[in-house]
């Protein structure tokens, strides 16, 4: 048996929905990893795409799975988990482009730290305009390094021993957002170890304003369902969450704007006061979208509970 055969077999799982260009970029990198090609498989789970996404996926030496019954990325990931043959499951998103050492770095960290879960670095790419929405997105989202400190992580860049899903169960597939946070919290609360690997890098495009607002709405909507799953749906919990989050966002923007340390980006952050004001304005719109999402989510939850 050679050394390659002793490496753990890895299943890379990527959900996709109507993202032909993104999935092409992502797969171009994933099939060209430094990790031995005989020691990993790639499972792309299409979640009901209506464009040429599936045609693009078939251009690559990967497995194309379909999840049409439940619309949602967590349902798609669960389908991938069911079909995966790897000892380790590596999750990323269709709009993420991993570095060539991504798999090596993530797997190595799992062994070095003897951890059940490893969260990798999500590095933002900016457009040439580097808009206020992009800068806010880079400051506020996909910070796996910060989330690991709270015992949670995101599936944009996450390595998990498959046996962890056998113990904890799969992702809550009906959540529109936050299912990864909910699941990783359950894992760490059960005693599993989650560590951060800055060397396991995926690149993610910063969002322009419209995608940012859609994301914030989805996060707000999903947070209500998460509170319900956590048995934290008291009136006080929901009201306090609606009130406190906007304050936290503005405090965060203020602290990040003055922070001199390296952020999760490929380019230095701007210090121009006018640009900082633009970021605040983007934050205001983002908070409004999030609050609308939470209100809509709360109405849906109450309606469902009343009609039981």
From TrEMBL:
Bilayer-crossing regions: 279-302
Gene3D superfamilies named among the record's database cross-references: Spore Coat Polysaccharide Biosynthesis Protein SpsA, Chain A (3.90.550.10)
GO molecular function, one term: transferase activity
Keywords: Membrane, Transferase, Transmembrane, Transmembrane helix
Annotated ranges, domain Glycosyltransferase 2-like: 11-135
Pfam families in alphabetical order: Glycos_transf_2
Keyword Phosphoprotein applies: no
Record's keyword annotation contains Cell membrane: no
Coiled-coil blocks: none
Record PANTHER family: GLYCOSYLTRANSFERASE (PTHR43685), GLYCOSYLTRANSFERASE 2-LIKE DOMAIN-CONTAINING PROTEIN (PTHR43685:SF2)
Protein name: Glycosyl transferase
Organism: Natronolimnobius baerhuensis
């Amino acid at each position: 048996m050679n050394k390659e055969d002793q490496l753990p077999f890895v299943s890379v799982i990527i959900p996709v929905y109507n993202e032909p260009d993104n999935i092409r970029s992502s797969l171009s990198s994933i099939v060209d990893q430094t990790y031995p090609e005989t020691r990993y498989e790639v499972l792309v789970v299409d979640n009901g795409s209506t464009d040429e996404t599936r045609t693009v996926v078939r251009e690559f030496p990967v497995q194309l799975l379909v999840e049409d019954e439940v619309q949602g990325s967590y349902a798609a990931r669960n389908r991938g988990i069911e079909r995966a043959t790897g000892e380790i499951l590596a999750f990323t998103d269709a709009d993420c482009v991993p570095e060539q050492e991504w798999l090596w770095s993530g797997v190595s960290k799992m062994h070095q730290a003897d951890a059940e879960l490893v969260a990798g670095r999500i590095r933002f790419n900016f457009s040439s305009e580097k808009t206020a929405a992009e800068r806010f997105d880079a400051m506020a989202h996909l910070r796996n390094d910060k989330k690991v400190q709270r015992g949670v992580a995101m599936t944009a860049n996450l390595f998990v021993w498959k046996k962890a899903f056998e113990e904890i169960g799969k992702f809550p597939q009906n959540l529109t957002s936050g299912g990864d946070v909910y699941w990783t919290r359950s894992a760490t609360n059960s005693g599993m170890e989650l560590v951060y690997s800055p060397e396991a890098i995926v690149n993610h495009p910063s969002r322009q304003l419209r995608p940012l607002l859609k994301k914030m709405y989805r996060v707000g909507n999903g947070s209500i369902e998460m509170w319900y799953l956590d048995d934290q749906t008291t009136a006080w919990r929901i009201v306090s969450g609606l009130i406190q989050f906007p304050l936290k966002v503005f405090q965060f923007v203020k602290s990040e704007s003055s922070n001199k340390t390296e952020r999760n980006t490929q380019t230095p952050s701007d210090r121009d006061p006018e640009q900082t004001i633009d970021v605040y304005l983007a934050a205001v719109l983002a908070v409004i979208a999030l609050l609308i999402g939470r209100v809509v989510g709360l109405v849906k939850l109450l309606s469902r509970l009343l009609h039981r």
